[in-house]
Amino acid sequence: MLVPILATLGGLAALAWSADKFVAGASTVARYLGMAPLLIGMIVIGFGTSAPELVVSAFAAAGGEPELALGNAFGSNIANIGLILAVTAIVLPLAVKRGILRLELPLLLVVTAIAWLLLSDGTLSSGDAGVMLILLGVLLTWQILSARQHADDDLVHDVEESTDKRAMSRRAAWTWLIVGLVLLVVSSRVLVYGAVEIAQALGWSDLVIGLTVVAVGTSAPELASALVAARRGENELALGNVIGSNLFNTLGVVGVAGLIAPATVSDELLYRDLPVVALMTLLVIAFGFRWRRDGRINRVEGVVLLVLWLAYTAYLVLNPS
After folding, report:
1. What is the mean pLDDT of residues 105-124?
2. What is the pLDDT of residues 260-278, one digit of tens each?
3. So what's the pLDDT on residue 163?
4. CA dist., res. 24 & res. 81, Å (int)
5. By Cβ atoms counted within 10 A, which residue in 6, 120, 168, 179 is the most buried?
6. What is the DSSP string of 102-156?
7. Half-sphere exposure (CA, 13 Å, Cβ side) for 125?
8. Domain extent listing, the chain
9. pLDDT at position 18
10. For the packed helices 299-318 and 274-288, what is the interaxial angle rounded to 10 degrees?
């Protein structure tokens, strides 16, 4: 039991560290290759923070652990809101300004509903996965076009400032890109091994271990990004990172896992976990949305989200099978 625990803890730590180095290297390489700062922020940094979820779920699906893959994806969505967004709002209340995010928040709920509908027959087929990945491509295209039309939006400026702060030499950028990618793969393999061994030893299902230990671990980069952005006053970037990560997890991570290995979807995921994802998303919309003026997620609302996440996680731990 000691070896799986050490593998899980070591894998989580290495995953968080390598993800940060990979994103920093990738964003700088993209800039040297001529990609616009805005696109770097939206594609490389925004979706790059979901690299741990993508790699872990891909290896889990390939290794015949589809519930671990799905639990990781949707558990990360729950942790992104109930832990990361909540803690960030408690540290510094988050402004929800009118603009791109006012469209993306409801869109996140729609994407969650679509995923729920696709999985409602109890299977994640290659066809379902294909639909998800096509939707991701359409969504990404829409975001890029929308951002170009709102060049004066605060979110655009926050993204460009964030990419400027990640600048490094060309050699260092390529080095961290390659090293980060290799360590992402290695640490993901170690993490999946440790998590599966612990789940089997404790009698936990792969779904529960994915929803708890693995989900929290793979969400570490989003927590770091959100806290740093909030402390710098980049409120929309902090919220945007969470929304972008959840969109990518729902469509990209689940889609890739489904293409690798079509899977059976358990009733627990359909009737327990996906409703929690939807509820958390609805609460963020309710807390942050204001008619004809900027919204705000305050400390009290952050505490509410955190308490809900803690209660949900406690329930899973007490009912692990």
Report:
1. 92
2. 999 899 999 999 999 999 9
3. 54
4. 24
5. 168
6. HHHHHHHHHHHHHHHHHHTTSEE-HHHHHHHHHHHHHHHHHHHHHHHHTTT-HHH
7. 8
8. 2-318
9. 78
10. 170
Indicate the range of 26-40, 65-79, 136-150, 211-225 predicted with least confidence.
26-40
**Per-range mean pLDDT, top range of 61-75, 109-123, 165-179, 288-302:** 109-123
- Looking at residue 100, its amino acid is I
Phi, psi of 49, deg, nearest 5? -70, -15
What letters, b where the CB count within 10 A reaches 16 and e where it falls short, cover 145-170?
Answer: eebeeeeebbbbebbeebbeebebee
> Which of 74, 163, 160 shows the shortest CA–CA distance to 112?
74
Residue 8 pLDDT class (50, 70, 90 cuts): confident
- Compute the distance between CA of residue 221 and CA of residue 305 in angstroms, rounded to an integer: 19
Q: Say yes or no to pLDDT of 164 above 60.
A: no
pTM: 0.83
- Residues contacting 109, CB < 8 A, separation 6+: 278, 281, 282, 285
The whole-number pLDDT of residue 135 equals 95
Q: Which tokens belong to 277?
A: 């994802």
Neighbour tally for 8: CB within 10 Å? 23
Query: Which residue, among 214, 189, 205, has the nearest Cα to 266 in the 3D structure?
Result: 205
Q: What dotted CATH number matches 2-318? A: 1.20.1420.30
**Residue from 242, 211, 213 nearest 88 by CA:** 242
Element spanning 177, H or E: helix 170-202
- Tell me which H or E stretch contains 51: helix 51-62
Main-chain dihedrals φ then ψ at residue 154, nearest 5 degrees: -60, -35
Residue 304 tokens, joined = 């509410």
